[in-house]
C-alpha cells in the first residue's frame, strides 16, 4: 500500500479541531436575507456582510437578468483578452463617481485587489507601513512585494509616527496601508490622522474600504466620512458586502487605474466575472446614492442592538460600526455559544484563531437593514438566555 503522503495534514486538522479553531460550514438554502433558511431552519441572520439588504433586491436581479439576455452567462475570457464589455466601462465610471475620484476599476474580488496590486506598487528600497490588524489579503499582498514592510500597533498614531520617522531616512517610497473598518472588531481607522502623518512624512496612503462602502460617509465609504476622497492615493473596496453583489473595486487617479490593470496579475490572468455581476454592481451603487435612508436605518438598528447587548452585560469590544462583536475569549466557548444561538434560531458566527489572536475569540454580529425590531429583540432574548447558561453574563 502506498503511504499517504498527506496524512500530516489530517493530524494538523485534528489538532486545530481539538482547539476549536476549525470552521464548520453551514448551508444557505434560500437567498441571503434577514431571515434565510439555513440547514432546514429559518434563522435571524447576523452572520452576513449584506449590510444594506441588497443581495436579493429585485432591482439588482433585474439588472443581472437583462445583462444575461444581452451578453450571456460568462465573460468568456479574462477582461484583458476578450471578456471586456461596455458594462465594465459603465461600472468603472460609476465607481469613480461613487468614490469621488478620477478613475475607477473593478476586480474579480476584493482579495484580488490587495493580492494583485500591492505587490506592484513598491520596489526594492521602498516600504509598506501596515496596521497590525489589517486584513489577510493586505498581508499576503505585501508579502509578494519586493519592498520591505513595517507594522505599527493597531490604530496607535504615536506608534505610526514612530515607524514613519524611522522609515523616512531608510527608504525611497513609503505607503501607509490600513483597513477602513477592521472586520473582526468593527472599529474605524483614524484616517484623518493617518493622512496627516503620511503627508508630514512624505508617504502615500492606501485604504481597504471593503466594510466601509454602504456604511460610512452616507454610504460612500471612509474617505467620504473624513472628506478625503481626493487625498487618499489608493482606495480599494468590495461589491460583495453592503453592495450585495460580487467583486472588488479600486478608485484613484486615472494613471493609478491604468497602471493597476496593466500590472495586477490577479486582474490580467483571472477570468472576468459574469456580465450579470457587473450590471448588478452598478445598480447597487445607484441605489446607495438614491436611498440614503437605508444607511441611516442601518445605523439606527446597529445602535439599538449594541446598546441592548451592553445593557444585558455583554462586552462588545471596540465595535463602532454595524459589525458588533461579543467578546468571549476562549475559542471552544465561542464555538459552543454560536452553536447554541443557531439551535435557537440566531445565526451569528464565532470568530477564532487565526482570524483573531488566541484568547480573543468572539461572536461577530453583522447588522443588516432588513432586520426588523422584532428580529433584533428576538436575537437579544436568545443572547440573554445563552449568555446566562454559559456564564458569559
Keywords, separated by commas or semicolons:
single chain, about 400 residues, alpha/beta, Aspartate Aminotransferase, domain 1, Aspartate Aminotransferase, domain 2, seven-stranded mixed β-sheet, three-stranded antiparallel β-sheet, 14 strands, globular
Describe this structure in words.
- This protein is α/β, with parallel strands linked by helices.
- It folds into two domains: 18-47 and 292-389, Aspartate Aminotransferase, domain 1; 58-290, 3-Layer(aba) Sandwich (Aspartate Aminotransferase, domain 2), CATH 3.40.640.
- Helix content is 42%, strand content 15%.
- It is built from 14 helices and 14 strands.
- It has helices at residues 7-18, 58-71, 86-99, 110-121, 136-143, 157-168, 191-200, 222-225, 254-263, 265-268, 275-290, 292-312, 331-343, 373-389; strands at residues 37-38, 41-42, 44-45, 103-107, 127-131, 148-152, 174-179, 204-208, 234-238, 248-252, 323-329, 346-347, 349-351, 361-366.
- The strands form four sheets. A seven-stranded mixed beta sheet has the order 4-10-9-8-7-5-6, sandwiched between helices. Strands 11-14-13 form a three-stranded antiparallel beta sheet, covered by helices on one side.
- The longest helix has 21 residues, at 292-312.
- The radius of gyration is 21 Å and the shape is globular.
- The relative contact order is 0.16.
- The mean pLDDT is 96.
